[in-house]
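Example 249, ligand 4-(aminomethyl)benzoic acid.
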Amino acid sequence: IYGGLKPTPGSLPWQVSVQVRPRNSNVSYGHTCGGVLIESCWVLTAGHCIQTNKDMQVVLGSQDLSAKEPDEQVLTVEEAIRHENYSEKPYAVYNDIALLRLKGQNGKCAKESQFVKTACLPDGPLPDGMECTISGWGVTENSSFGSNHLLEAKVLLINQEKCSQPQIYGRVLDNGMLCAGHLAGGVDSCQGDSGGPLSCEQNSAYMVYGLVSWGDQCGKKNKPGVYTRVANYVDWIRSKTRIKKCKCG
Ligand code: 4AZ
């Protein structure tokens, strides 16, 4: 996160660290992406976060990834489901969404607490210009390795036609994407934040309106972050998880 600050612990309880290691190895897991808890056994992340021949785990309720914190929960990923039409192009990533099914017992995986809660799925569009929150452990303006501590920043939802102007992203955006940020630059998501939430508040509940997906570098003028438009994929999410209206917020 560029231009970020440490959030109050527990204010983003759906934020997940997605971690990988080579399959069946004993090396320790390393943070690769963000993710979003949407149900006890389901995490939403970016499609480009799924790597073949890797074991995956998620850490919930964490602030500092370098410390073993009392409220964190570490869960194994049993299955990663990437969108069937995921495609990586030199200029954009399409259908950049995946689901992680967590390992649990009797349909229970994450335990709800002050620091671990699910986010709602969006049920419709939000207005251009609305202020939402991005968060993650990714690259910052001061560290190309990312941040051990979770960071958050406020960004604005940017009109799709505006973001499709030639001096911004031109004609590469589709309905599965949305832009958010500050056209002046400086405040943005970056590498390592991918898959994490663009969280927007509506009726005092938080929804995962976007997932960090791509952009032309980070924090640059006229190059806002591009996010997977989760509202476009709610039917896909429900078809894979068979979750109904989740309790959230
Ligand atoms: C990346 O490389 C990446 N500024 C993620 C987000 C953004 C740019 C790049 C948005 O994963």
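Summary: The first strand starts at residue 15 and ends at 22.
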